[in-house]
Specification:
heterodimer, A: 489 residues, alpha/beta, B: mainly alpha, Histone, subunit A, 4% strand, flat
């Protein structure tokens, strides 16, 4: 059961081979045993989880041929601690929210629990306010990679990734502003999907950079991701940028053959700056796709080298605005000692935020300030347009773009923590996708030095079903995604 | 471009984050490293390019001007640092 796919779990629950309570308890036991090593969860509340499992069991018992339960009813899932969940402590990895019990549910939580019948196992560790690529900026301490406990799991959804990789949960939610689903998926041998911007509601998902943030699934396979996305996606009037489109079955095209699939290989993703063994694994994966009937075309994304600089203007600018709400008045941390109101703000924010979050607030404040707005913020937005237009041109020649997800495998804890710029470059291949608002995935495609390597798939707008198909067919031909780390039995 | 210590302190004040001189010095060196990365943008000629604020070209939706939320003041104030009689308390603003 520990390594079962969501489909297998669903079948076992429907056939009454196991109850949701038993399944939930099985994973809660693993969390109790293995979480002290990994630090993947920051909050577990077994009674709360078991209560939802009981409700799910009642739904399963009441289900009939006429009125079946949802396909994921009763399946436990780990929730990134960026999603507000009513009655659950929701910290976003920050001291600022260390005691915040959310009074309401994010739309993603509501849809997954109330509509789909999934059971939340707990809240997973993450970089503070999702700002980081290693999970080391969390107020609750770093998460360890199940493949090597001396290494990072990636970030910012590092707790979700470690939890699924060590099978403390069958699957998890994540969010991706510059690579925070795809990069940890790559570093932990998981399949992760960042949908087209606007497909998954941002309501109740604590905001980092609102024009880039997007929630999505982290799981063991493309099939699992498709089933999860079916429960997460959909129009939400509470999110002003949610897209009002017909609902899709993201699993509908999983089995489609890949004959004639045109794969675009941007030369910028295959140049210097990537670890040679990572690149070798990616090339072997592309050769496998050719065996499956795909053809490749070399192309160029000429402005992609500008994505990291443009992102580090746009994302901090939006963050500095979003995080101004943390002022110690209505919720969150307030300093113990202060003088006047201004002093209360100054001290609450100085003590409540960690170093990386402060850095980004300062960058954002600066680039939005009088006299610098045009040179930085507007210039970054113009470059964002160039980057998005490059993809429009590229998709005239291909159906899916491929390359590495991350330039290296999981790095050592502390290795990049002292140098923000080195850390930022971990997301060199993923950020352009967020700037353009496109869907992207990471799929396990081999190992380098015993550590997982991820293949990035980038699709055109709303092409999630095709990406999942492309990933699924590869996973039927290879077994990289079913490899599990040792010592996590 | 290079930020001075005074600029760092000024930005921190604008962002309402108290910063000691030692912290300001470390922050200055980190921010200057980051701005060196950001400066790559300045070499690009973007004349005539429309700034892209958002991934989707959408106008804001409008809804009926009607009350849709229920009163949940008690629940929302339960997580506040300090309240009294339904009000949020802060240090005295007007003497």
């Amino acid at each position: 059961m520990i390594n079962a796919s969501l489909k297998q779990l669903s079948q076992a629950l429907a056939a009454k081979q196991i109850s949701s309570v038993e399944l939930t308890q099985l994973f809660l036991d693993r969390i109790e045993r293995l979480n002290p090593t990994l630090n993947a969860f920051v909050t577990v509340d077994p009674e709360k989880s078991l209560n939802s499992a009981r409700l799910a069991d009642a739904r399963l018992a009441a289900a009939s041929g006429v009125k079946p339960a949802g396909p994921l009813t009763g399946i436990p899932i780990a929730q990134k601690d960026i999603f507000c969940a009513e009655g659950w402590r929701t910290t976003c990895g920050s001291k600022m929210l260390a005691n915040f019990i959310s009074p309401y549910n994010a739309t993603v939580i509501r849809k997954m629990e109330a509509e789909a019948g999934l059971v939340s196992l707990g809240k997973t560790n993450m970089d503070e306010f999702a700002m980081g690529s290693s999970n080391e900026t969390s107020f609750f301490g770093p998460v360890r990679n199940p493949w090597d406990n001396a290494r990072v799991p990636g970030g910012s959804s590092g707790g979700s990734a470690a939890a699924v990789a060590a099978r403390l949960a069958p699957a998890a939610t994540g969010t991706d502003t510059g690579g925070s689903i795809r990069q940890p998926a790559a570093l932990c041998n998981l399949t992760g999907l960042k949908p087209t911007y606007g497909v998954v509601s941002r309501y109740g998902m604590i905001a980092f950079a609102s024009s880039l943030d997007q929630g999505g699934p982290l799981a063991a396979s493309a099939e699992d991701c498709a089933l999860l996305l079916n429960t997460m996606a959909g129009f939400d009037e509470r999110d002003s940028t949610s897209l009002d489109r017909p609902l899709e079955d993201y699993a509908r095209d999983l089995e489609k053959p890949l004959n004639g699939l045109r794969i675009g290989l941007p030369k910028e993703f295959f140049g210097e700056g990537c670890d040679a063994e990572v690149m070798a694994a990616v090339r072997v994966a592309i050769a496998e796709y050719e065996k499956l009937g795909a053809t490749t075309v070399e192309l160029s994304l000429p402005n992609s080298h500008l994505s990291v600089p443009a992102y580090y203007v746009i994302a901090p600018a939006e963050a500095s605005s979003n995080l101004s709400r943390f002022d110690g008045v209505r919720y969150g941390f307030r300093a113990d000692d202060y003088g006047n109101l201004d002093d209360m703000y100054l001290k609450s924010r100085a003590q409540g935020f960690g170093a990386e979050v402060k850095r980004r607030i300062l960058i954002g404040t600066y680039v939005l300030s009088h006299g610098y707005y045009d040179a930085y913020y507007l210039q970054a937005q113009r470059i964002r347009r160039l980057i998005a237009d490059d993809f429009v041109e590229a998709f005239k020649q291909c159906d899916v773009i491929m390359g590495p997800t991350s330039p290296s495998t999981a790095f050592r804890l502390g290795e990049k923590a002292a140098d923000p710029v080195q850390m930022y470059l971990s997301d060199i291949y993923t950020i352009a996708v967020n700037l353009a608002g496109l869907p992207g995935m990471s799929v396990p495609c081999g190992f380098a030095g015993g550590l997982p390597v991820g293949l990035q798939l980038i699709g055109n707008y709303f092409d999630e079903a095709r990406l999942l198909n492309v990933a699924h067919r590869y996973q039927q031909a290879t077994d990289w995604h079913s490899r599990r780390p040792e010592g996590m039995a | 471009m290079s930020l001075t210590l005074e600029q760092v302190q000024r930005i921190a004040h604008l962002a309402r984050i108290e910063i000691s001189e030692t912290e300001a010095r470390t922050t200055q060196s980190h921010l200057n490293g980051i701005f060196q990365l950001i400066e790559q943008m300045q070499a690009v000629d973007t004349h005539g390019i429309e700034p892209m604020a958002h991934a989707q070209d959408l106008s804001q939706r409008l809804r009926d001007d009607a009350v849709t939320e229920e009163d949940r003041r008690v629940a929302y104030q339960a997580v506040a640092p300090e309240t009294e009689a339904g009000l949020y308390l802060v240090p005295k603003v007007i003497e």
